[in-house]
Structures
1.
Amino acid sequence: MPKPYTFKPGSKIKISNFETRVEKTEYDKKSAAEKIHANAIVMADHARRLYAENKRSILLLLQGMDTAGKDGTIRTVMRGMNPRSCQVYSFKQPSEEERDHDFLWRVHKVAPRKGNIGIFNRSHYEDVLVVRVHDMVPRKTWQQRYQQINDFERLLSESGTIILKCYLHISREEQRERLQARIDEPQSNWKFNQADLAERKFWDDYQQAYQDALIACNTQHAPWYIIPSDRKWYRNLLVSELMRHTLQQLDPHYPTVTDDLSQIVVE
Amino acid sequence: MPKPYTFKPGSKIKISNFETRVEKTEYDKKSAAEKIHANAIVMADHARRLYAENKRSILLLLQGMDTAGKDGTIRTVMRGMNPRSCQVYSFKQPSEEERDHDFLWRVHKVAPRKGNIGIFNRSHYEDVLVVRVHDMVPRKTWQQRYQQINDFERLLSESGTIILKCYLHISREEQRERLQARIDEPQSNWKFNQADLAERKFWDDYQQAYQDALIACNTQHAPWYIIPSDRKWYRNLLVSELMRHTLQQLDPHYPTVTDDLSQIVVE
């Protein structure tokens, strides 16, 4: 099965060394869609057991440049899940109340409850990405955050949360095409934002910020997965596989009922 | 001025070596009350500046055996503060939703907002105290929590929160008298709880748990203050002094208005 790129905690990487498009794969668009559908059925069953067991949780965190496909991945991979125990949080610009607290405050509040799967569309990593690129806090502040993030993620991990962090990796050319498509296709116009063009000018700064964040926060308890994302179906397949595999590894069980129910008759 | 006991981060202490009642002091009940009143006026003024400045916050955390006087301290020391920017959180038994998250989840949610003073009546330390004494989680779990607490408190500290942790230190005999008073005095009956007598049987276990927590979590960024609390007025005086001193050290300022307002006329 195709897998995301991973790398050893503590080791240095160059983000530009990772492919954004993997050519060699036994899958194509159609067979990937079938596999994602099959995975969704397995995932729904296991998510139900996870909920009944009520001991552990999963946090799937998605980061990536504009147009990398965070929304599309969630839509394609997670449909089929019971929303009762699967919540998506999209982190936008922080509110005034959120800015009046440490940067992890709003994130911790929505950490997944036991038995649940939490999905972060963007996350606390924005506080070492956009915040860094645009000098929104002093250098010392965002540098401290790597350790703060690692400590926070370790707390969640030690408390029973499995953390999966996916970096959706696209090329600069692929982003150009996708932004252009948002302009050219009327039904995609609503997704287009002038600000995206301004952000695109900071491409190299963002790549550097991503690289540093991936290196600094790639831990045993919360590893990064680099997802080649120039092809949407391949990106979706990788994330779907990761989620299915994680749920199967967890192997959650329905709680065993210790009382003997055999004599109970409901009248 | 009388001061709480403090000790170096990393150093070991024996809690039984600290006095619960300090005899030598220039203060008495009456002059202490006057000083506390004078402090309250200074504190209210500085709290107002802290609020206007909107950059930093204070967290006053109170722990102590039953009857040590957490409620009484807050009532006596903090009256005079504007409740707009001063909030007390009393941590009770966690709810089902709270138990379905890591133990710091409910604490982080109520961490003080910039410009505010947060007061914790009990706190996350209960998760290495009562939880440990009654074996409510495996040993490994509560042992991990010391580091998790230190990391969490460092996050708050690095984000602008001044953390003051007060251990209200009473003797076993003093607790006996106070519990007896709750039984003997009709207007205090409502405070009496049969469970307190059961808890009292675990006195030594609690003292050990407090000692370990004080040693493990006495950091530069969040030090413990040991408050001799057998005499209520002395206890209150120490906490009042600590709070006044902290606010004066912070020396918060009203934001300077850069616009020239001199020509503005309100019509």
Note: The longest strand of chain A covers residues 161-169.
2.
Amino acid sequence: MAVTIKDIAERVGVSVTTISRVLNNRGYLSDKLKKKVQGAMEELNYQPNELARSLSRKKSNVIGLIVPDISHPFFGQLTKHIEYYAYKHGYKLMLCNSLLNKKKEKEYIELLRASQVDGIIMGSHTMKVEDYMAIKLPLVTLDRRISDAIPYVSSDNYKGGALATKLLIRKRCRKIAYLSGSLQLNLLAKQRHDAFMEQVGRQSVDYVVRQTDLNGFKYKEYEALVRELFDEHPDIDGVFASSDLLALQVVRESRRRGKSIPGDLKVIGYDGIQNGGAEELTTIEQPIQEMGKLAVLRLLQQMAGEETPLETILPVRLLERGTT
Amino acid sequence: MAVTIKDIAERVGVSVTTISRVLNNRGYLSDKLKKKVQGAMEELNYQPNELARSLSRKKSNVIGLIVPDISHPFFGQLTKHIEYYAYKHGYKLMLCNSLLNKKKEKEYIELLRASQVDGIIMGSHTMKVEDYMAIKLPLVTLDRRISDAIPYVSSDNYKGGALATKLLIRKRCRKIAYLSGSLQLNLLAKQRHDAFMEQVGRQSVDYVVRQTDLNGFKYKEYEALVRELFDEHPDIDGVFASSDLLALQVVRESRRRGKSIPGDLKVIGYDGIQNGGAEELTTIEQPIQEMGKLAVLRLLQQMAGEETPLETILPVRLLERGTT
């Protein structure tokens, strides 16, 4: 029986898709992989099927990207960078907006699988660990460590939380609020909260913690959260918000109440969204471009059957501006 | 020779893809179309090929969406709504970020065609009319009228420009600046400028017009634009900016110069981006959700071979807030 691509794949220990890419010189290919495939082809005396190859060549390289909310500036920017690097390597992007809906996330993964995407980048995390483990496709997650088998890319959340809290303490805040998305989801962003708690504990600073509901990203919820905070704790003199959007709501509400910033209240956000608008918002900048670039790289490395680092944690940066 | 799907398609006067969808009951199908196809099948005595149908059934419904910059809040929100309605009708989204790069836009359209997408929504406009006419796929454009053959969806730019300018005049501005993206591109957004000119002419109000370069969406450019404007025309007392992002830069720069808003300077933006941040920005709200919904609907109607209205112009709304 004639030797097929499947036999080559088995011999080399990678997927059929990967062999196909090598034969068609498509996408990210390491020299090591190319040598292995060449070697296997010679050993097995493989005669390529030109028709199959030309059909294969028509196959479009697609990566699936699932985000919770594309209209959130952080995800808008992240998607921009992921699209850029994916395109650079010859891959197109299939975008799914999960809106934190578990059913939609699951359905979308099925659709992506049926569409024969080469891999998936997960920026949305509603499913259980077992569900992610069951996805038989190259996978990279953002901001969440699911298992020892699925690589993830993140920025240094703990450091970011520490930098932000220390700054407020250094600026002599006596009662600091930490505002975040839900702390129940097992996301790496929770480490910002852990760092906050460590710092306020160490310095014996008074503090308050408030979280939005599980269905984060609803801007009206942010408004309500901030109002309640100020109603219940009018003596707060520092706020660390876990996103710039949340921080901007704090600035807005403070103005309404006649509190001056940074005079009466110091505010620090998180993300470092470029178009922060009219505010010179002090914030912790996430390296969004690098995160996008590395998410794509880790996925390509997996697709190429290469050893891929489990964790990629990128440094954050404190941007001290006008609100502290 | 056996009757094929192609024969049915010719008889009905639609594409093979459309017939395939009817046979597989996939996507948006009008009763009128279904009846036509049924009738043609009976007339021609068509015997469906089950293998071909099952292969066809595995085909994923995909719509291509090309935007200039997904990180721009307007396009982030638009994409969110397009994705939502596409998904609702069983279509997945392939996202392209053109960054206003003509070569990339052209390449992407080729890739989408090779991927056999069912249609394309164009939100990015760098190519010439002939190039768009040459795309042999269902097509809908946003904010640009390309020809009498390609449906477009827009909001009422002229009305929006008039509402904004009239408001500033009503608030007794004596020297008004209009700030916009490039006025060279033949976009419907240019009508905001036309309305502005009409109003300032009518009321004999002093005015200045400034435009960013062709490569809009670069936030540093906005900063420079606004600074130059205030340096050259410190007596400006009203600004109509053609995007909220631009308006926020104006607010920022005004603060830096110690100008109070709205006291010394009245500012109105455009778009009505939800997360305008800390500002109570007066703006002209575009019905972004409706635009997304109708862009998808128009594309589906085309795919179904139905008569599709050439122009869909949705109403805008003045949101009077704290900056005027």
Note: The radius of gyration of chain B is 23 Å.
